[in-house]
């Protein structure tokens, strides 16, 4: 690949080596024993995931399955209080218990022990102040997991209880909960003329709950001491190099003496970014000289990892008599919980996208992220963007009702397109087919109405055994338009490195981009198949001996890591074809590779890749670095984002206005994807995102009372089941390629999560006429009928 554009920041090295390499890959089992004719491969086909068979058969190795000789088991003592002063910690009884090998507290952490991916404000173990329910106090290693748990419970901690700050609005006037204060970030966005007003003004107050990532497998890990005094940590990390550097700092070791090996990740949407489990594990392994394993309970998982930011939003929309937006005013308050984590980035997204994918000439937004004694908040798909989408779409429904306009028509009068400005002053240079998306879902046929028949009672919102009556059911249709940014923002240096090796007719990809369920491992195989024409492609396991590739967030691996793999594969292709092109007196562009064979345009040359290699190994290493961004300035202005993806969703719901129960009948989706690289995988990601959004709209809320998490389990936290999942109709995927992105592809997973809760809320408003302004929607909000 040559040229600049979005790939211009890539660099690479290449070389050849005699001999063969052993390819390590989770793909090997899935690729062996295939049909005689090679299946279709390359970009644009539905290549199955390499680990699909192992996962469905239950043989795929996750962190909870790991074992080592001389294994000890760990348990963590966590605070039962959301806010308290630690008077004393007595570990004597725990240390004397038979089978206990070590007990560690803050006193065993080198230095101040503060850590954090973005802000080093969180201790490994609380030393003087407990700031949230479930904060780690101490950890134990023992011969048996039950012994470890009993020993942790035997640690005597004397607390002086403090009044918790649980209302984020109180955080501004409360005593500082942290030496850094309660305010994490404030963004005042100023765009246009503050004196401008519209002929029609609508206001709204919106509240978004605390959604948990609820991973299919709770956190687990294994730490193994090294002969050099270092440690290896085997865990489901989404950013192993950042975890390694953070752990090394907390252990008082050089980074090269800490190695993080990524095990099977049972899905990740931010929950794997909490190092609060890896750090106690490493400390215990270093202290005991034995491998130490920890498998968190579901309760510990809920208490420890980050959740979606609960958010309070106040909005005022101004429009003219025709429904054209004139000005948007908003206040956005994110509850970060006890520590900063990714709250600064979430706030930047919330403020920047506060007006949605609409043209707004004047915008004035105040955004804050504050510390409280609530559970920690952090990166969850579409953070910041999801919360504001629910609010600005609520405002659009209010405005449509006030003007007597169809909600879809009002939106069409205001949607943005390529070349329009965000309220941050950044020009939308990528494809922005928002109007096309909205028209597609609007014009898609509506589902049939349920039949008033006993055999069709399952169609009632209450289900088969529900107490509802068909006469109390109202149907509603609502729309949501959403947007998310891709890659990091505000000056984040996005870079990834990949190596492609070819030996015989087998290619191996070495890249530290973690497969978290987003499909990168499958995509990497498809890229190499497309460029080198080889069917058998392996993706090496990830560890920190490889060059860094960054975190698996904002669909960045499709762009940055996929771009690095593409660059490296093209460099290998050039190495392979140049000798043949020189021999036959033609350029490499006149040669093609397919199904393991190299042929020339005129048919004179025809040979296999293995014959062309002649026993040599070819390899190349390349980097991808997209064009830089910049931080938002003191007025919220700046080119903060590399790219943006858009989505439109139409929700159809049935609401029992007597019981307040809601059934989502259908979700019609149209999405701006740039280019579909794997149709089956793209569909699965959209369906998963819609389902997660339905959960946020109707059921998912990690509830707290006075900072204490109520029922931190999968009974108290209501995830949507297959019976709650609606029919999902993917109406249209707009493949207008983003010229600065590798392959032209855009993010797929996050934007349906952002948009679908707003669409469900809009549909419930349409069915009931009530001002639904809280997510998840409570039954009392859907009871009766009223004016919006």
From TrEMBL:
It comes from Streptomyces blastmyceticus. SMART domains: Ald_Xan_dh_C. Residues 57-163 form the Aldehyde oxidase/xanthine dehydrogenase a/b hammerhead domain. Residues 25-48 are annotated as: Disordered. InterPro entries: Ald_Oxase/Xan_DH_a/b, Ald_Oxase/Xan_DH_a/b_sf, Ald_Oxase/xanthine_DH-like, AldOxase/xan_DH_MoCoBD1, AldOxase/xan_DH_MoCoBD2, AldOxase/xan_DH_Mopterin-bd_sf. PANTHER family: XANTHINE DEHYDROGENASE, XANTHINE DEHYDROGENASE SUBUNIT D-RELATED. Pfam families: Ald_Xan_dh_C, MoCoBD_1, MoCoBD_2. It comes from the Bacteria. This is Molybdopterin-dependent oxidoreductase.
């Amino acid at each position: 690949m040559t040229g600049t554009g979005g790939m211009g920041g890539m660099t690479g090295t290449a070389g050849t080596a005699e001999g063969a390499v052993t390819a390590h890959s989770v793909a090997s089992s899935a690729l062996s024993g295939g049909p005689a004719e090679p299946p279709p491969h390359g970009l644009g086909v539905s290549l199955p995931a390499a680990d699909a068979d192992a996962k469905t058969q239950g043989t795929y190795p996750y962190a909870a399955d790991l074992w080592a000789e001389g294994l000890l088991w760990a348990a963590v003592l966590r605070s039962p209080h959301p806010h308290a002063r630690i008077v004393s910690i007595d570990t004597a009884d725990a240390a004397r218990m038979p089978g206990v090998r070590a007990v560690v507290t803050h006193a065993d952490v080198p230095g101040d022990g503060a850590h954090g991916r973005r802000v080093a404000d969180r201790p490994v173990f609380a030393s003087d102040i407990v700031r949230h329910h479930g904060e780690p106090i101490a950890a134990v290693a023992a011969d048996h997991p039950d012994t470890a748990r009993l020993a942790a419970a035997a640690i005597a901690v004397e607390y002086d209880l403090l009044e918790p700050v649980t209302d984020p609005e109180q955080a501004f006037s409360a005593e500082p909960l942290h030496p850094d204060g309660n305010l994490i970030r404030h963004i005042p966005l100023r765009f246009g003329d503050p004196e401008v007003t519209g002929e029609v003004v609508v206001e709204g107050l919106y509240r978004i709950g605390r959604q948990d990532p609820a991973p299919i497998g709770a956190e687990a890990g294994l730490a193994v001491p090294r002969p050099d005094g270092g440690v290896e940590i085997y865990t489901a990390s989404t950013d192993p190099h950042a975890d390694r550097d953070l752990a090394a700092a907390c252990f008082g070791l050089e980074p090269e003496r800490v190695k993080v090996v990524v095990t099977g990740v049972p899905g990740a949407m931010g929950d794997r970014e909490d190092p609060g489990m890896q750090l106690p594990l490493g400390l215990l392994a270093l202290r005991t000289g034995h491998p130490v394993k920890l498998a968190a309970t579901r309760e510990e998982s809920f208490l420890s990892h980050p959740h979606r930011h609960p958010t309070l939003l106040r909005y005022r929309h101004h429009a003219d008599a025709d429904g054209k937006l004139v000005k948007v005013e908003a206040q956005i308050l994110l509850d970060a919980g006890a520590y900063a984590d990714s709250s600064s980035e979430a706030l930047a997204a919330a403020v920047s996208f506060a007006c949605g994918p609409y043209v707004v000439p004047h915008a004035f937004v105040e955004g804050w992220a504050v510390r409280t004694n609530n559970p920690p908040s952090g990166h969850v798909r579409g953070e910041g963007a999801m919360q504001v989408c629910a609010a600005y779409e609520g405002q659009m429904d209010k405005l449509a009702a006030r003007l007597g306009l169809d909600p879809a028509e009002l939106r069409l009068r205001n949607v943005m397109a390529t070349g329009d400005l965000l309220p941050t002053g950044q020009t939308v240079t990528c494809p922005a087919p928002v109007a096309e998306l909205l028209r597609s879902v609007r014009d898609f046929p509506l589902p049939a109405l349920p039949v008033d028949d006993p055999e069709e009672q399952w169609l009632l919102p209450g289900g088969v055994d529900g107490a509802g009556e068909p006469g109390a059911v109202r149907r509603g249709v609502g729309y949501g338009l959403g947007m998310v940014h891709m890659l990091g923002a505000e000056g984040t240096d996005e870079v990834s490195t990949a190596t492609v090796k070819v030996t015989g007719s087998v290619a191996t990809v070495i890249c530290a981009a973690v497969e978290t369920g987003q499909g990168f491992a499958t995509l990497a195989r498809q890229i190499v198949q497309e460029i080198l024409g080889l069917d058998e492609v392996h993706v090496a396991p990830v560890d920190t001996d490889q060059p860094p590739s960054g975190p698996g967030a904002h669909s960045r691996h499709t762009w940055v890591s996929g771009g690095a793999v593409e660059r490296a594969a093209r460099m290998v292709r050039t190495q392979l074809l140049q000798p043949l092109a020189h021999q036959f007196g033609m350029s490499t562009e006149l040669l093609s590779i397919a199904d393991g064979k190299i042929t020339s345009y005129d048919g004179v040359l025809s040979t296999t890749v293995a014959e062309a290699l002649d026993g040599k190994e070819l390899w190349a290493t390349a980097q991808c670095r997209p064009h830089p961004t910049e931080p938002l300035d003191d007025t919220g202005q700046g080119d903060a984002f590399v790219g943006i993806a858009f989505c439109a969703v139409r929700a159809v719901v049935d609401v029992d206005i007597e019981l307040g129960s809601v059934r989502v009948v259908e979700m019609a989706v149209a999405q701006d994807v740039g280019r579909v690289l794997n149709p089956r995988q793209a569909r699965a990601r959209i369906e998963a995102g819609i389902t997660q959004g339905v959960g946020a709209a109707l059921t998912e809320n990690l509830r707290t009372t006075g900072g204490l998490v109520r029922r931190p389990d999968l009974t108290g936290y209501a995830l949507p089941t297959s019976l709650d999942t609606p029919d999902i109709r993917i109406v249209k995927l707009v493949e207008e390629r983003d010229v600065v992105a590798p392959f032209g592809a855009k993010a797929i997973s996050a934007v349906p999560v952002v948009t679908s809760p707003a669409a469900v809320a809009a549909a419930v408003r349409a069915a009931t006429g009530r001002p639904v302004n809280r997510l998840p929607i409570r039954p009392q909000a859907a009871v009766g009928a009223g004016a919006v």
